[in-house]
Amino acid sequence: MKRFLVLAAAGLLTACSTSQVDLSPIPGSITYKGQPHTRLKNAPVGSRIPHEFRNQFGERISETYVIEPDRSLRIIDRHRIDGPFDD
């Protein structure tokens, strides 16, 4: 029984770490109206790019993008930030 529980837990952890959440752009996202016209040619593939903005409700949002092999940007993380917005 212990072996089954260990294997089940390991399977769940593997599933969680390999699953990808597909975040859709929201107003304020860099990719909201499509990919930017200028491509990031000097940044290596896999580089992460942070971006902060206010959403339509005035909340401060932080997004992280990763540069894909085709030089497009993909959102990999989004969360709301508490506190004042530094302009």
UniProtKB/TrEMBL annotation:
Give the taxonomic lineage as stored in the record.
Bacteria, Pseudomonadati, Pseudomonadota, Alphaproteobacteria, Hyphomicrobiales
What does UniProt give as the signal peptide span? 1-21
Organism annotation: Rhizobium soli
This chain belongs to the protein called: Transmembrane protein
Q: Which UniProt keywords apply?
A: Signal
